[in-house]
Specification:
By secondary structure, the chain is α+β, with helices and mostly antiparallel strands. Helices cover about 20% and strands about 30% of the residues. The chain folds into two domains: about 50 residues; about 210 residues, Jelly Rolls. The strands form two sheets. Strands 1, 3, 4, 6, 11, 12, 13 and 16 form an eight-stranded antiparallel sheet that branches. Strands 2, 5, 7, 8, 9, 10, 14 and 15 form an eight-stranded mixed sheet that branches.
Length: about 270
């Protein structure tokens, strides 16, 4: 088979083998906070800075991060992404969070939220039970997932499926808990807040890095893959871990064929 035809066949084969999690359309927004709040997913959902925020080059995996001092509810970021559960039955969002050792041990401090006052989709740091704990809002309930260690970057994410009466997967670090949701159908529509819960409590104090939003409910293995691999697993998609060998091998084969075709063309 001629090289160019073989290349086309391989590309078609790869397209058929890619898992659903690889679809770029599923990723709504990805924010690396490299000195700005632009969306690096290619979807153009750039954020807006409200008040005063800072950026640091000391984020996880050698990247950047958004930093907030927790002193005012006027300092936060908004992104034009809808996480109100009544308009999107399936969704996933998360980030790497850093709680400083000097953070106050009082109140709830929202990290990502579309809450309108009824415990709508939110990730936060909760200190009501003493100490620091990452938690997620799942309707009328708040679920916690262990102690939030201070001074270290931690992967925190939540996946919702099935709408108001569906299910959730909440991940902190490598730990996951699952359960059912009972959302009331409300929530702030068409905008999501980063660094604060828009309706109560206080601004987040600490760092937020590599915030991401999907319009699909990622599976437990997909969330675990992001948490263990890092932000590189977010773009261009989130393949299941079992597919990694196939994708890597196929890409190497495509590169080799491309080089062979180039050499053949140069020898003509």
């Amino acid at each position: 088979m001629h090289g160019s035809k073989l290349l086309k066949v391989l590309l078609m084969t790869v397209g058929c083998l890619l898992p659903a999690g690889m679809a770029k359309a599923d990723l709504l927004g990805f924010y690396t906070f490299n000195g700005n709040v632009n969306d690096t997913s290619g979807n153009g959902n750039n954020g807006t800075i409200n008040g005063s925020v800072s950026f640091t080059d000391s984020g996880p995996f050698g990247g950047s991060a958004l930093t907030l001092d927790g002193t005012s509810k006027a300092n936060y970021v908004t992104v034009p992404i809808n996480t109100a559960i009544e308009l999107t039955a399936n969704e996933t969002f998360g980030a790497w969070l850093l709680v400083p050792t000097s953070a106050p041990t009082s109140s709830i401090r929202g990290a990502i939220s579309s809450d309108d006052g009824d415990f709508d989709p939110t990730l936060d740091v909760d200190t009501r039970n003493g100490g620091f704990q990452y938690s997620a809002f799942v309707g009328g309930n708040v679920v916690g997932n262990g102690t939030a260690n201070t001074g270290v970057w931690t992967f925190v994410a939540v996946s919702y499926s099935g709408g108001a009466n569906g299910h959730y997967i909440f991940q902190v670090g490598s730990n996951q808990i699952t359960g059912t949701t009972n959302f009331d159908g409300g929530g702030v529509e068409n905008i999501t807040y980063i660094g604060i819960n828009p309706n109560f409590d206080f601004e987040f104090q600490g760092g937020i890095a590599d915030a991401f939003f999907y319009n699909t409910a990622l599976s437990a293995s997909q969330l675990a893959n992001i948490g263990s691999t890092g932000p590189s697993a977010i773009l261009p998609g989130v393949p299941e871990p079992s597919m990694s060998w196939l994708l890597g091998g196929t890409l190497l084969l495509l590169i080799a064929i491309r080089r062979k075709i180039t050499r053949q063309a140069q020898s003509l």
